[in-house]
Every structure is written in structure tokens, then in C-alpha cells.
Here is the input.
Amino acid sequence: MSGRKRYRRYAAAMLLLGAMAFLYGGWLLLRGQIPDSIQAAKADEIPSFFSSPIDRLIEKEIQFEETSGTSPAPEGFAASVSTGNVKNRYQISYKLLGKIPLKTVNVEVVDREQVYVGGLPIGIYLETKGVLVVGTGTVQSIQGKSCIPAENVVLEGDYITAANGSPLKNKEELIACINESGGNAIALEVQRSGKLLHLEVTPVQTGENEYKAGIWVRNDTQGIGTLTYVDQEGQFGALGHGISDVDTGELMEIRDGLLYNAEVVSIVKGVQGEPGELAGVIHYSEGYQIGEIKENTGQGIYGTVTAFPHLASELSLCEIGYRQEAEEGPAVVVSMVDGVRKEFEVEIQELRYHVKEENKGMVLKVTDEELLKLTGGIVQGMSGSPILQNGRLIGAVTHVFVNDPTKGYGIFIEDMLDH
Here is the structure.
């Protein structure tokens, strides 16, 4: 075989492989546009996740599942859905050109929930479970010798929950235990990555009646965010992302926390490379407490509103929108950056159904001239600001793009409600 023929065959093979790779990449792209599961308010809903030209190439077929107390409806499957919460399930298969399977989506039929839309600034105070280790360091003994007593004993991100058998509520209790040790080893109970460890550390005498273990700890944190919603039973969700420790970067494990009224007093505008922030005053007194924080998760903070009837009277009920009902295009965010709770225009630019971080399920861009003038776009403290589209609550603002403060991420409200 001549070299020219071999070259032609090689080129043809490479062209074929390239075409196959291109088609496979396109298949993956289309498949990635479809979520694995959705909730729907009615059983005859067949959502589309593509623009019109592509959607015409996608065939959708419903496959109904039999569940207790129901049976598949031969004509008009909506008849097989009874009233209540989750009452039926079905599947929708999506096929390209009616032949190439893309994905089968599991659908749960539910009653559409209504919640009170937030948008109010909130003061947050959290206490950790035990005390959080943020590092270890060198201490100077009374003899002038430098040492690191806790090196390779406790690690950054550990939670010390007990010392010498006594539960710890705050760092002051740990300091007292170390000072009272007389230089004898202290038995520590430590939570590390979900595991309980029993460790020992021997404090060093650093002065008269003073002992130190070189463990840097923290037991509380505070800040400002935005209330996303309150349900009709007085349970709230806020932020749309969890609160992580500033030193370790780990999601904080909390013992409890409190929610307070807060006021925005100034705004640092966001610029490229430097996120802005809302500077506010948190009223840490009993008369300004509005809730108790029970959970700190990757989807936000959650708890109970203590003055529910009063807070609900300031807000309005709104239906939630499911992820398949969110659309690329105009929407609004509700915020109180200038002291008045109002809606600001944004544009949803991308919907992302398959991301590891649920709080980055949508990409939005601020288009409202007033908000751009006030903040430069999205700033720290706006996390949790509700996102409304077509009269429904579809999500909340979570992050700002550091290199473009006019843009940021949002979380689908379903993911916040399903924490």
C-alpha cells in the first residue's frame, strides 16, 4: 500500500473519530441540560429544558408508575393523582430524534407550597459544638523554652467537645481547664470529620499559676445576611449557603444560634477583583431577637422565627417555582440594601442542573441601574436575597463573581427547602 493511501485512510479514521467525539460531546451537553429528578404541581406537566429549535428534535414520553392507592390512568394520567403532599410518581424519557436516549427523569407530584418571601437583612450569631480549633502554635515555657504542646495532637478544623470528662460550651471553659491542670495531661474528646477521638495534651507552665497548650480556638461567629423565606409554620431559611469558619474554610458545626434584626448603614461597592459588602448594625439584645438557628448546612441556615405572626404581617405569601419552571431571562431579586425592601431587576443567564455545589445552580446578572449604582452589583450580605420570576419564588442569591460583581450565583428554592 502506498504512503498516500495510508495517509488517506489515517485521515479518514481521524475524521471519523473526530466526528464521533463531536457527537458524543453534543450528547453529553444535551443530557447535562436535563435534571435527574424534578417535582411538579400537576401530573400532566412535561417540561422542556431546551430552546425551541433543539426542543423540536427531542421526543418526550411519559411512563407512569403504580403506587399504593393509585393506578395508571389509561386516558389522561392526571386522573390518577390524588390530593395531599407527594401522591404519585411518574417518569419522562427524553430521546433525541425519538431514537437516541438522553435521560429518564423521575417526577414527584406534590402540592405547590407557598411561603413568605423575605429580603430582610438579618443579624446572625452562631455558637459551635464545643470549641473549634483554628490552629496550634508555639508557647514560651516559664524556663524560656519554646515548644508546641498540641502539635500533631489536635488539628485545624477539630471540635473539642470535652476536657477531662467535662463537656465544653465555650473557649473560656477550656482555658480554665488548662490553667487548672498543674501541667498534667488533659484528656480531650475531639470530633474530627464525624469521628469521636480521645486525645491527650500536656500543657506547659508559662507563668505563675499559668499554663498553656498552644491551641488557638473559636466558639462563636456573627455576621449579616438576608432572610430568604419563612414557611407557614414559622420555619425560616436564609443565606442559600452555609457559614464556614474564616480560618479553616470548613462548614461550622453549630450547637445553636440566634437571629436578630439588623440595619444596613453603609455599602462598600463591588469592583473587579474586590467584592463589595453591606456594613450593618446588629441589635444583639432580647428585644431585637427574631429567631433561633437550628441548622447550618451547605444550602443555608435554618431555624424557627420566634415572633412569627408579626414578621409574617410584614411579608407576603408567594408560590414557589420548581427548577424546571425557571427560565433564562428577566427576573427580580428582593433586597433591602438602601433601607427599603424592594425588587431589583436581574437576568438569569444560565441554569445548571448538574453541579456539585447546589448553591451554584443558576447564574444571574444584575441589570437594574439603581442597584448597580448603589452596590455595583451583588455584594456580601446579599446572600439569601430571594429571586422571583413569573410571580413565583424560584431561588436565592448565594455568591458574587469576584472578577465581575454584576454577576453571581443562585440556588434553586427547591434545594433550600429540601435541605
Residues 258 and 292 are 5 Å apart (CA to CA). The chain has six helices and 27 strands. The longest helix spans residues 3-32.
